[in-house]
């Protein structure tokens, strides 16, 4: 078995990617020449586009678009060769508007841009082991001012069953709770992150988020998700918040407006990685739990390519975790430059140091 396939098995179990679809939208006048278009491309490749003109119309020009962004205008039936190096990973919608004999018609196709990076298998060593509350169904996990904060979810949001979620700050060495905020029983708590003196928290399926004062944990604002998405993991850099929604997407949010400004799609080779969960941004890379996998994916924050995989399956054997108690929780402590990981209802938190 090739190393890449082994890593995909660790992270995925099965391959989750669907092949690209190069089928053209029906057009009785013009169509893309599908013989020159592949289903999948890597970022270093070029996309060659040309238009078939079976009715021999007098074509004046063609305007090409990718994801509704104009690429180039060409004269007549001139072909276009387009570099993909600056495109996101994932599906790309290609459109051509053909101008002919005082009229215009459009045709579309779709390709999938996949990663050209083979992930590295990372190693780790355990620095310390600490207690973890077995009643904590861990969702968000983050350090702020050398203190560990944890957000939990429990129950089933929207089902009529009361949720028992909370947000707490505590001494990770002893488990002593400094402060705990019990959430309204209507909400299932999810990811958290700190930015600009605020603590942001997501809920799962209620499309609601909360903004607290980072020092007092007083609630300052409730906001509604701009997109029709679920709330899963959260992290931040100096300017933006990043959040996962249970798919392959990681969204980029403006913390001042709570509006989404961009997103990336996560790919390991040609495979789309779904169920991206808890997030942590460490040295410019996303570290992500993948739901129900005992592994962490290390993701390029610019293009979404998985660059490394950290297999943490051995940690479960050191806990009293059941098969349902999945790995979830990544917190980087900048003071010690170590990573803290745990799982839902685990009895332990592990401080680890990651190596290639």
Side by side, the strands of the main sheet go: 25-26-27-28-10-31-30-29
In percent, how much strand structure appears in the residues? over 45%
What is the CA-atom radius of gyration, in angstroms? 24 Å
Helices and strands: which structural class? mainly beta
* Spans of at least 5 consecutive residues with low confidence: 14-26
Distance between the termini: 21 Å
Shape: elongated
Number of domains: 2
Question: How would you state the average pLDDT, rounded?
Answer: 91
> Which bin fits the share of residues in helices?
under 10%
CATH level-four homologous superfamily name of the largest domain: TolB, C-terminal domain
Count of DSSP H/I helices? 2
The CATH level-2 architecture of the largest domain is identified as 6 Propeller
Largest β sheet strand count, sense and barrel closure: 8 strands, mixed
Number of strands: 31
Plain-language structure description:
It is a single chain. The protein has 356 residues and is mainly beta. It has two helices and 31 strands. It has two domains: 18-113, Immunoglobulins (Immunoglobulin-like, Sandwich); 120-355, 6 Propeller (Neuraminidase), CATH 2.120.10. The strands form eight sheets. An eight-stranded mixed β-sheet has the order 25-26-27-28-10-31-30-29. Strands 2-9-8-5-6 form a five-stranded mixed β-sheet, with no helix packed on it.
What is the strand and helix layout of this fold?
Elements: H1 3-12, E1 31-32, E2 40-41, E3 46-49, E4 51-52, E5 59-66, E6 69-75, E7 80-83, E8 90-100, E9 103-113, E10 120-131, E11 138-144, E12 147-152, E13 166-170, E14 177-182, E15 189-195, E16 198-203, E17 208-213, E18 219-224, E19 234-236, E20 241-244, E21 249-254, E22 259-265, E23 267-268, E24 271-272, E25 276-282, E26 285-290, E27 295-300, E28 306-311, H2 313-316, E29 327-333, E30 338-343, E31 348-355
Parallel strand pairs: 2-9, 10-28
Antiparallel strand pairs: 1-4, 3-7, 5-6, 5-8, 8-9, 10-31, 11-12, 12-13, 13-14, 15-16, 16-17, 17-18, 19-20, 20-21, 21-22, 23-24, 25-26, 26-27, 27-28, 29-30, 30-31
């Amino acid at each position: 078995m090739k190393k890449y396939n082994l890593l995909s098995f660790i992270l995925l179990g099965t391959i989750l990617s669907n092949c690209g679809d190069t089928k053209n939208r029906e057009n009785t006048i013009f169509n893309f020449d599908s013989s020159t278009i592949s289903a999948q491309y890597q970022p270093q490749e070029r996309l060659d586009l040309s238009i078939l003109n079976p009715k021999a119309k007098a074509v004046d020009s063609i305007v090409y678009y990718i994801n509704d962004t104009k690429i180039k205008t060409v004269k007549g039936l001139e072909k276009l060769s387009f570099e993909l190096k600056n495109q996101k990973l994932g599906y790309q919608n290609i459109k051509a508007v053909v101008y002919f004999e005082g009229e215009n018609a459009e045709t579309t196709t779709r390709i999938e841009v996949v990663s050209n990076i083979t992930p590295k298998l990372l190693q780790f060593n355990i620095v310390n082991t600490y207690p973890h509350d077995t009643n904590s169904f861990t969702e968000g996990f983050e350090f702020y001012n050398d203190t560990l904060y944890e957000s939990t979810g429990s129950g089933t949001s929207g089902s009529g069953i009361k949720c028992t979620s909370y947000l707490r700050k505590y001494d990770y060495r002893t488990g002593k709770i400094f402060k705990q905020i019990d959430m309204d029983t209507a909400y299932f708590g999810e990811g958290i992150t700190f930015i600009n003196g605020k603590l942001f928290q997501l809920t799962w399926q209620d499309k609601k988020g909360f903004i607290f004062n980072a020092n007092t944990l007083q609630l300052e604002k409730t906001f509604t998700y701009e997109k029709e998405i679920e709330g899963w993991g959260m992290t931040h850099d100096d300017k933006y918040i990043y959040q996962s929604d249970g798919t392959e997407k990681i969204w980029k949010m403006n913390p001042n407006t709570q509006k989404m400004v961009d997103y990336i799609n996560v790919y390991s080779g040609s495979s789309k990685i779904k169920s991206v969960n808890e997030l942590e941004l460490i040295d410019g890379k996303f570290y992500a739990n993948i739901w129900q996998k005992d592994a962490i994916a290390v993701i390029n924050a610019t293009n979404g390519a998985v660059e490394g995989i950290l297999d943490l399956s051995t940690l479960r054997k050191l806990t009293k975790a059941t098969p349902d108690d999945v790995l979830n929780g990544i917190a980087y402590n900048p003071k010690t430059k170590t990573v803290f990981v745990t799982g839902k209802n685990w009895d332990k938190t592990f401080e680890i140091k990651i190596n290639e």
